Each structure stands twice: as structure tokens, then as C-alpha cells.
Amino acid sequence: MTEDNEDVKVTIEDIPENDRNARNYSYGVYSIVKGLIGLIAGLILIIRPQMGIRAVSVILGVFFLSEGIFKMILVFKIPQPDGREVISGALGALLKIIIGILLIAYPGEAGEFWVSFIFITSGLGLMISSFFVFWTNSRAVKDPSVAFSSIIMLMLGVVLVFVPLGSARFVLRVLGAVLIFSSVQPLIYGIKSYSRR
After folding, report:
1. Please, are residues 58 and 107 in contact by the beta-carbon 8 Å criterion?
2. Torsion over CA of 60, 55, 173 and 124, rounded to 10 degrees?
3. What is the spatial distance between Cα 40 and Cα 179, in angstroms, rounded to a whole number?
4. Where are the alpha helices (DSSP H) in the chain?
5. Cα-based distances in Å from 193 to 29, 32, 48, 66
């Protein structure tokens, strides 16, 4: 380290006590707010997982709507040599705008549809993978671990296909529990920082 750099080096002791207290207080308040938001969101997901599905539906709706509007502006702002590209671009943008409006206007129904679609598709994929392992892997019959994992995949696939909304609610409740658990540490740190002031 050169002599010039040693002059610039700042240690904790060099920061005035008032500035350190102000920084700790600001970070403490930030940690409390962050912890409270995580705690509230986690409780909502555990108590009312349907609200989580609706929230994701609205967020997707805003994404599709903004993407469609942006695409529509680009289609008519940038000159296209071929008229068919303008028509297909405008139709694609209009479709995104309509999907976005539907997702925002009907978050419950749209949320149930996309959750059902995703979970049923995932369940079918797991079931097909499980059958594929049994048919193509000769170890599946002889090796208990391969057979057990295939049976678990098959059972999980059946649950996802026949109970997609219940599965989604369970996943959201688990996510809520994780949010609550992860918000405890910032809350404790924030309360300690706030009480030191």
C-alpha cells in the first residue's frame, strides 16, 4: 500500500459517533420495515394463499399490458418495408394487451387458470418421466432407490394433475412460512439497532 492510500483509509473509529448512530438508526428502521413487510406477506400467504395467486396474476397482467403497448408503439413508430410484418406485429401486440387486461380485470379466474395450466402440465411431465424411467431403465426394477424416486415422481404428478389449485395453495403456504422465517432476523436486528439509540 502506498503512502497516499494510507492517508485516505478510513476506519470505524474515524467516523464521528453521531454519524455512526444515525447510520445504525437508519439501517435499523430499514430492517424493521423489511422484516414487517416479509412477516405480513408471509402471514397473508399462509392465511389467504388465493391472494398470492391473484397478486401474481395482476403482476403478469401488468407485464403483458406494458409489453403489448410497447410493441404496438414500436410497430407503428418504426417503418416496416412489408405490410404483413406490421399486421402480424400489431396483432401480436393487441393479443398481449388483451391478455394483460383480462389478467388485471379478472385476477381470481385468470390466476386459477394459469396455476391449473402450469401445475397440470408439470404433473403430466412428472408422470411421463416416471413411466419413461420404468420402461427404459432396467435398473428401475432392480434398484430400490430408482424405483422409489420414480414412484414418488408418479405420485407427485398425480397430485399436481388432479389437485392443481390445492397444490398451488400448499406451495404458497410454504413460501409464506419461508418469508416469515426469513423476516425474523431483520426484525431482531432492526429492533436491537433501534433500541441502542
Report:
1. yes
2. -30
3. 9
4. 3-8, 17-47, 49-77, 83-105, 107-136, 139-142, 144-162, 164-196
5. 8, 9, 32, 41
Give the tens place of pLDDT for each residue, 106-165.
Answer: 998 888 888 899 899 999 999 998 888 777 777 666 777 777 888 898 999 999 999 998
Q: Which residue carries 405480513 as its cell?
A: 40
Residue 80 exposed, middle or buried by CB count within 10 Å (0-12, 13-18, 19+)? middle
Residue 114 to residues 11, 36, 94, 146, 153, Cα–Cα distance (Å): 54, 30, 20, 32, 22
- Rounded to 5°, the CA angle 126-128-129 comes to 65
Q: For 95, how many CA atoms within 13 A lie in the half-sphere containing its CB?
A: 6
| 183-192 pLDDT tens trace | 988 888 888 8
